[in-house]
Amino acid sequence: MIDELSALERIRERFQKISKAVSLGIGDDAAAVRIHPQRLLLATVDSQVEDIHFIKNLISAKDLGRKSIAVSVSDIGAMGGVPKFFLTSIGFTRNEDAKFLEDLMDGFQQGSSEFRLELIGGNLSTSDNLFIDITVLGEVELNLMVKRNGANVDDIIFVSGTIGDSALGSKILRNGKKSEKDRYLISRHIVPMPRLMLGRELAKKRLATSMIDLSDGLILDLERITVNHGLGAEIYVDDLPISTHYKRRISDFLKNPYELALSGGEDYELLFTSTEEKSSEIKIVSKQLNIKITEIGRVTKKPIVRVLDKYGSEINVGRKGFIHFVNKNPQRTQRIYKES
Question: Looking at residue 17, what is its pLDDT?
Fold first, then answer.
């Protein structure tokens, strides 16, 4: 069976950018197309598939609708852009009724209002499993777009907010043993908060050399802005921003307290690099927006991501993040990381 990384590699090989209007094609959080001498159209699409991204009886239709928009909007924020419009393609099963549709639309309306974008079209079909595809269109100034590539050796690696909460919240939901104290972790999974304002400020002030939103796990997404472009990274596990809620509950599920923070996914925080000279400005933005931003490591020359303890010794990391239909051959997966 083909794995996700191999599939992406083959698609990129066959569909190279050919139009001068395409400023950025396959391989980033969003594609960018020239629509104006000074502005770019940003386009991205994401899916929520039943039993893969959500369990139907563990999330309300309204929350599902809002989350579907939020995860796509997050890609626009990672480019420093502003979302404008969205389209949706929905595959309904025989089990959804009129109330489900109304509640789902309530979620779409909530997301539309919250992120200031309009629904302009889409498609409906039947399906064996419920799915929702959201395409978001946005824009960004030509000279402000932040891409995944752009980091340099010795750049500082930053991450916003806290990480691992969503993955732990998902585990708690699926385990079925939740309490009132788990509300925060569960909400981080069900009601993600894309960092649109932060992404925009970092772009406007030209503070980020590269950026990506954390959807598939810290290690895997960090490789996408370093290893995939011939660079590497060193991060210190003790510097990872971990919430008190995560610390309180993680031992009930895993022996390694950092596993979900490193590879859990669906945080939708911003992971970005910047120069040391810009660190004071980043602190100012953090304070102004009241968003925690943490320095977790440095960009390195050797194309590998290393996780270090406080003594500088390397920690072995098993699972790097979420990969769809993963190939069981680890050598094949490693080769893709190095060549893509």
Answer: 63
| Predicted TM-score of the model (pTM) | 0.89
Given a contact cutoff of 8 angstroms between Cβ atoms, the answer to whether 71 and 132 are in contact is no
3-state secondary structure of 274: strand
- Please calculate the CA angle 83-89-90 and round it to the nearest 5 degrees: 125
Residue 75's contacts (CB-CB under 8 Å, 6 or more residues apart) are 29, 30, 44, 46, 136, 213
Query: Taking 70 as the threshold, does the pLDDT of residue 143 lie above it?
Result: yes
pLDDT digits (tens, 9 = 90+) for 177-229: 778 889 999 999 999 999 999 999 999 999 999 999 999 999 999 999 999 99
As a whole number, mean pLDDT of residues 82-102 equals 97
Burial 240-260 (b: 16+ CB within 10 A, else e): bbbbebbeebbeeeeeeebbb
Cβ contact 93:125 at 8 Å? no
Q: Which helix (H) or strand (E) holds 85?
A: strand 82-92
Sheet hosting strand 210-213, strand order edge to edge:
210-213, 270-274, 156-160, 293-300, 232-236, 305-308, 314-315
The whole-angstrom separation of Cα 94 and Cα 159 is: 42
Place of tokens 């083959």: 10
Both tokens of residue 252?
């009930």
* Rounded Cα gap, residues 274 and 156, in angstroms: 5
- Cα 74 to Cα 215: distance, rounded to the nearest angstrom: 9
Contact 242, 261 (CB under 8 A): yes
Quick one: angle between helices 98-115 and 61-78, nearest 10?
30
Residue 250: predicted pLDDT: 95
